[in-house]
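user: can you give me the structure for this one chain? tokens are fine.
assistant: on it. calling the predictor now.
[tool input]
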Amino acid sequence: MLPTSRSVIVGTAGHIDHGKTSLVKALTGIDADRLAEEKRRGITIDIGFAHLELPSESGAQRFRLGFIDVPGHERFVRNMLAGIGGIDFVLLVIAADEGIMPQTREHFEICRLLDIQRGITVLTKADLVDAESLDVVRMEAEDFLRGSFLESKRSQIIPVSATTGAGLDQLKREMARTAEQVTAKDTNSIFRLPIDRVFSMKGFGSVVTGTLVSGSVRTEDEVEVLPGGKKLRVRGVQVHNLPADRAVAGERTALNLAGVSKQELSRGMTLAPPNTLRTTKLAEVEINLLADAKALNDRARVHFHSLTSEVVAEVVMHQGKQINPGQRASARLRFARPLLLLPGDRFILRQFSPVVTIGGGVVLDAAPLKRLAPSTLEDFLQTMQEGTPAEMLLARVHRRQQTGLAIGDAIAETGWPTSTVESLAAELISAKKLLRVSDALITTESFDNAKQALLSAVKEFHSANPLVAGMSKEELRERLSLIPSIFAAVLESLVVDRKLEASAEQVRIAGRNVVMKDDEAEARQTIERAFASAGLRVPALKDVVAALPLDKTRAQKIVTLLLRDRVLVKLSDDLVFHSAALDSLRKTIRDYKSQTNRIDVAKFKDLTGISRKYAIPLLEFLDRERITRRDGDARIIL
């Protein structure tokens, strides 16, 4: 049986010139310094990449280790941050001839803030010191790392020499053991590739590289670049510099993209499935400030780093005016430009000036609502930190109240695949905590509240408009700010409960009829008599309304009722007929058909005794009613 293969990403961290790149080359045979300036100056300026295959101790697995060699110089920490976000474990490199240095401390704090759980401490250049000096450096490292994920009780400290090869075999064994402890990434989750490098190749076009943090991607897949939203086709895939049909989470990946120039892409952008995820300029986060940092004040500007993105952000405190050194607090970040973030993404904060690392944290919500009561927001963020996935989904639906949360919005907000959202929704529906309405979710409490609000709105409308038969459906929906599917479900529920009645366009209280005052009822009879007695020689509607002893608004509402009940029929803005007169006209035309099936305007005027003013609109009415059909200047009676 062939051993299974799993990809694991390893990051190097440590001070400048402590031998990170030389160590990677000694392990893999690959020189991760790819830039001419790096070769000339002998330091890593940008991120370098290499790879190595190692068997597990049992031989049942093989690990494809992808190395991200990050620069150590303080000026290049921003490049280091672009590479370290997707790693599974770290090699913390300390030169035996120098010991712990400033960037050793900064890189270590960054690893801790990014919640990296595993690693190995490597004492490089061991051939340059004697045994006693090496022991001193080892004790210094043990003291520095005590209580951390790299504490010697949990992690090895291994001296090596890239020059002589001493210690490399032991390091490889320890790396294989550590890789075996790494939880395999979910290849069925939503595809996300943060771009850390862009270049073009003659004959191929634009190529991007990055660590595939979730999901998978294949040749010919369509992807979306965020921010921007441009849709692209994957022309080719490489994994660890070798062609592949598919790349999966945890692999160093290069994609050859069709339909885009190198200038349109840059580090910090992310590739994702089309029309699935969304960028944001706001995020709710938990910030962990380093113990040796200055207090972080409300409205302070900072440099924000997450995965390969870097952007200036403003910190807006939820409570108090500052975060003190060594403390944690929730806050909202406002970004200078949009970027793709998801809950659970780790980040680093660097002071705006001078640029030094001051803290980091985790994204709790990348789709904040503009108006939430402070207590509601506090409860929501606590659920985002401590809740189960089902509780998190319920909280996201609950905060939308009566508007509900569409399934597509739930996917975009959480970054969970459709199958996960659907499964959690089914669990909550079964527990009677959620309702599914078409493509949206709403809590049972919010649905009941929406029913009550809708019923109250219709009652208020009737109270304010006693002469109007019902309320417009669209006006009612907009007043309650319900999405169409939830509005329809709430209305249907109230109709089934026989609390409301609904026609094509109107909603009214069940069993309600228009209640008129005495003068309104008399005015209705006056209008109806005026048109009934006129036959086809009807008066102008405005003249009839003007003669009523009612204000114009109430008179117009009575006319609207007569039109709704089809007592009167409007043929134009000021031309209204009684329905009995139109019924009589239909009979007259059908009787005339016994003589001939054609009638022109002149004959129609003689037959009805009306002028052209009434004849043309009435003939057009008969056409619409399919009693006649126009044929040139005449009509054919059907």
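assistant: here you go. The two ends are 84 Å apart (CA to CA). The chain has five domains: 4-181, 193-272, 280-365, 387-515, 526-637.
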